[in-house]
Queue: 2 jobs
Job 1
Amino acid sequence: MGGEVTARVFPPLGTTDYSSYIAQLPDPDEVDGYFWVVGGTGTQAALEAFVNAKGDLTGDQHAGNLFFNPGLASALGTDIAGAYVGGFAVLPSDIKTPEIEEYLASADKTWDTLKTGLTGGEPGPPSTAAGFGFMYGYYSAGVALTEGLKATGGDPSPEPLQQALAELTLDLPYGEISLDENRSGIVDVGLSQLVEEDGKIVQKAVAIVPKVDQSFGGTFSTDTPPPSRDFPPCETADLPWVGNEIPVENGVPQE
């Protein structure tokens, strides 16, 4: 309690049965909360395993990265209202700037339908897929490659192309993207909250955290251990984005 982490569980990649790993977690009355870092198709399986073993998910005890999309609403239940989610795939879906609307409309003009996890694997609006981080990542990489080749005059050789990419700052629909000295992306990250509207859980953007890099504000470096059960420690840290978040009100960034 009191902010101390009492259990960390790291299932192997490719795990489909989370029951034994969830069993290692303390019960809800033994901890302040849980932070979920589960990716891809494992998210719903892990959350359902928690509900079966520990009880309903509640917004005041749970937060995470790939923690919510419309396809997970039935697994989460309305008690999850209040939880915060963020990460590269959690794009602020309720923010509709002209740049975002143009980007989403371009997907609907290009394809008739796309099957995605957000539509339960069934054909759906292409803009639904485009508004999720996975497709947006491919889009961003495609724009970067195009701009890099323009800068090299079409020369795809590794050295000139990598140099050109290192000097790019892309002004993309969901914020600027550039590369650090390790050619890792520096991106704006959306922070959203799950809220209940008319008996359904929806995602509402509350802030944009600008220029998040691979070190997560200096938490990781070549001198620190890799992420593990013991690192990083659960402690208060002076992070560069604290106080520099861009608030979002009713879908409008307050810049």
Job 2
Amino acid sequence: MRPIRRGPSPIAGDFSPYTQAQAHLVTQLGPYCSYCERRVATQLAVEHIQPKGLPAYAHLIGRWDNYLLACVNCNACKKDKDVVLSDILLPDRDNTSVAFSYQPDGKILPSTQCTQSGMAQHARNTLALTGLDKPSTTHLDPNSRYVALDRVSQRMEAWMVAEEARADIEASPGNNAVRRSAIRTAQGYGFFSIWMTVFQHDPDMRKRLIQAFPGTQDSGCFDPVTTDPVSPAPNPDDLPKGAKI
């Protein structure tokens, strides 16, 4: 889950209707789901962290600090579930890059560091909230070819694409054009955390990825020189219940 900084609200007061915040959010965070990380060309929703469907949070419907971006799947899974900020990890206030471990088979698990920090249950709560712990389902087209429709399958596909890009770079280590092409591919697919994992031993590519995905460098969650994660998160906007990891 890519850590981001949303920054201060671009307007004075609240958004009304809240959908007017969408363009501002995409500018700040990029056209990516804040939870599953995939790029969403259309139907990327303004996601209310504290759900707008619960009366207790009606006063936050127009509030900039209550917004992220979500795809149809993550939004539908989260829906109107009550969110206890102290019990989950969020990309706008925690360093979610160190909380989760991304696997080649598409699974997302609490990381070793997360477990050692006593935050494993927080990580599991977050995955359950957004449905990112759901298993893959098999889809075949009329010609019996596999089609990546669910989020697990799409993560597996992104992993393979990232590995192909890494192989191209290793074959031409001094070719800057190959590295730029890999970054454009990463931006086109999304799944920042997968690319960061595949390139975990390439600080130059990691630095390029951090700079290429809007809002991530501003989060302060990565050392600007080594690209090592900074934990706990700096939480520069002092958001409630932040910096848990």
